[in-house]
Structures are given as structure tokens and as C-alpha cells.
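ok so I'm stuck.
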Amino acid sequence: MSEKQKSTISLALLKETCDAALSSVAAADGVVPDDLAHLQTTDFAVIHKDFISLLAYLYSATTKTAISLKPTSPTYSASLSPLKDLSTNVSNLSHNVRLVQNAHGATVLKELQLAARSVISAIQGLAETLLSDANATKEPCDAYLSKVGEVHDAIDKLRSSTDGLSSNNVAAARKVWAADQSSLSDALRELQDMPESGDDDGFDDGWDELGIDPSSSKLSPEELERLRKVESIVKLCNLMHKTVMKRVLSAPLHNAPIQQEINPILDLLANDSPTLPAAVDDLIATVYSPQDKGEMLDQLHHLDGAIDNIKSHIDSLFALEPVGELLKEATGTGKKAPDVKRWFGTCFEEIKKLIAQMSTTLQDVQ
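replied:
not stuck anymore, here's the structure
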């Protein structure tokens, strides 16, 4: 068997290994399979460290494979060792994800699944391209270089010191909330930038030619009053969401001695986070003229439910005795921070009061 044939077989094996690894990663459910039981650990830090180490091995093996299988001047014999390393460590990466247990947290498990999938899919893409080059009858191109770049970029992102792989479930939940915060900030800007009248300073935007009266978007005094009320609600929702990240999903919680009790609540909070900007967006959509008071009332009720869920899970977190004490730490400004539990109690109460007041007003005018 020639060296080229051996290399081609190794590439085909790598592709099959990636297929199997992706299926294994997708099947990860927080329960360690029997064939990996001898490797399981209660310490997520060990799993995290091993995952990062495997990324380094995969990065190096990808580079060596790319150099040895450069289409214009391949050295097939030199490709066999890095291709074997790639297959071995792709499998190891999927095994690493399967070692994450329910006790470690569903949110960080989901993040590891996405991380492993991004790397393995990129390596699979590289293997497919190199296989295609090996079997090509015409002169190969440099498409493989972009595939190498995809592998390196996926790994670099996960090894980043600022936005890399989360070290625990607290960090993973905070990452989810941080991603959703931008949506809430955008929603608030949308409200604040919303035109309050049909005055366009004589600018011809072409609506007349389409048979649409631009003055139909003008808010009546009553509609403008509702816009202001919605804006007050959204401002408080935005502040509450930011404060969850700053004061709850914060460094002190990483050191809580009862992570197994905290993690299920963090998973619920991670699921809660995207429901808030979605509910806010749906409410804002009802503010545009002409306003449908019934639809606005429905969306206020929807938002109220989202707030109730977040409040319930924040309360459950504070009900764990060590958590309340940990989160009383100073903000780092040298001043003692307000009692965080009391702050959230007041904030939730105010949001729900504003929603209730506006709902009552809408019901009265229907």
C-alpha cells in the first residue's frame, strides 16, 4: 500500500471519527455512559482543564496535517502521525463532554456541547476537503487553507481569556445573560428613538406613492402616554437584567460551597434570560400606532409571567443560606453595596406594580 493510500485511508477514518464524535456529543445528557464510568469525576475543573488541553493538541495536529498535505506538494508519510492524533483527540474531546454530569450544570454542559461541535465540525470539513484534493483529477486549489483557518479560529475563540470556555455553571449562565442584555438595550433604544409624531420636516420618504398615509404613524396623546408607561417598564426590566449579571451571577457565587444546589437554579435562570427580551420586544411592537389595546394587554400579561419566573428563581437562589451572605460583599468601589436581596425585592415589586397599573388602565378603556 502506498503512502498516499495510507494517508487517504487515515483521512477517511478521521471523517468517520468526526461523525461518531458529533453523535456522541449530541447524546450528552449529564449521565456518564458506562464505558466512561472509570473516568468520571465530580470536579468540573478537571474536565475543563482536559478540554482546553485537547484543544491545544487538536490545534497542533491540524497545523501539522495542513503542512504535510499541502495539495501542491504533499508529503503523505508525514501526514500519518498528525492524522492519527486528530482522530484520537477528536474522540477524546467527545468523551470529555460525556463526562459532564447533571450536578455540574446543564448550562455549562450545553456550552461544552456547542464548543465541541464547532471544533469537530471544522475538523471534519478539513478532512473532507483534503480527501477531495487527494482524489481530484485536476490541479488542486488552496481551499484547504480556509478550512484550516476555521479549525484554528474555532479553537482560538474557546481559548480566549475574555470570552472563552466557561469555567463553571455560574460563568456559563452569566454568558447567556450577557448575550441577551444587548437585545434588551436595543429594545430600550428602539422605544426612546420612536417618533412621537408624524412630523418629518418635509422629507419625502415615498410612502405617499405607495398609497400609505405617513400621518397614520402619528401617536395620539393617549398613545404617547402609553409609550411613556411602557418605556418606564422596559427601563426597569433592563436595570433588573443588568443587576442579575452584576450582583448575582458574579465572582462570589463561583466560590459558593453548595454548587450542586445552586446549579439547577442557575439552569432555570439561563432559560429565563432570553424570555425577557422576547417579551419586551412583543410589548414594544404594540406601541406603534395604531395601538391595539387588547394586544398590548396580552403582552403585558406575557411580560408579567416572565418577570414572575425570574423572581421565583432569584428568590430560590437567595433562599440558600450561604448565597445571601456571599452576595453581600462590596461592589469593589470601596463602598458597601445595598442589600442585594432587598434591592431585587423592591425592583420586582416596582416592575409588577407598573405592569398592573397599565393593565388596569387598558382594561378600563376597552
